[in-house]
Amino acid sequence: MKLRQTKYIVAALAALTAEMIVPIFSGTVFAAAPPQFTQAYLRLDRHKAITTTGGTVCATPATTATEADVQVTLPSQPSGTDFTVNSTAANWVVDDGTSTVGLPAGSTFWPGMTSGSTTASAVSGKTVTFPSGDLTVATQYCFHFTGTSTLTTGSAGNSLAGVIHTRTNVPAVIDETNFATAIITDDQIVVSAIVPPTFVFALSGNTDTFPGNLDPAAILSTGGRTVSVTTNAKGGWIGWVKDSDQGLFSIAANYKINTSGTVNAAPNTLSSGTEGYVLDADITTDAAGGCTVAIDPEYDGLTTSAGGTLSASFQPFTACTGAAPATSNGDVINLIERASIAGGTPAGSDYSDTLTIVAAGNF
Length: 363
Fold this sequence. Notes:
The protein is built from one helix and 26 strands. By secondary structure, the protein is mainly beta.
């Protein structure tokens, strides 16, 4: 009994050994996986679901061989709406990214392709084949395919797998890398901000005095006071002047040296020995910005004896205008009063006048 059991055991071991040994000599060959790129990826132009997109293919060869083409197999989604791959090879136009998305820093445009004219050589299912020149090991190569009538994303999903590989003209795979990408509901961030309206207005001082006594033989001018404006108003700004007395008035003499002329969009010229009083506006700084400063013709006195008529109502003395946005980054206008008197102008040490200066941004 024991002998028979021993024979069975020996026979079973022999059969098992034969099953293990036979495959070794049976001629069965398991193909080795192709070498992988050192690095490779597909960068989509858009990850948003159901959106037409282009993409950038990059790969760094690891194997020395002569490449004839590069194939990109776009991902298939396990469920839901899939990537849509246009089957017309001529629609898959290649470019170097200069006028579109730009190739990644440090990369080289893929040899064997001409930006803007090279197209895919074939499209089969989700595999798109592009021509390739010979690649150098350890150099990163990239190309971009346009998003017009090529690839459309499907529904949202993660870890969507595809393949990039290069081939010889046999064809035989040289380097190959599996990649993964994702589709999301929306791939954009909308940034919002507020720039509040600004208007900065200043006078360099609140008094302006003639440097000497008024004299029938001369026309005198004050030192002037500046008006400064900075504003982000898209239409620029306007400055106005209003006069309390429309002249220089002396309480002691009960007399007024009246302003000269009328408001008629033209300056007045004073004459020695004749009473007169005007305001001149001069550009000190036309700051860099969107608007251009111009003096109103009424107050644009081009000589040291000219200026505009002063009024009891607001009159524009300058404006900064231009095509929007006509902002101002610090315009400066100098306001100068000028006066002349006659030989019989009553004496008085209290001649004075008050100008009110206002401005507004044109928002």
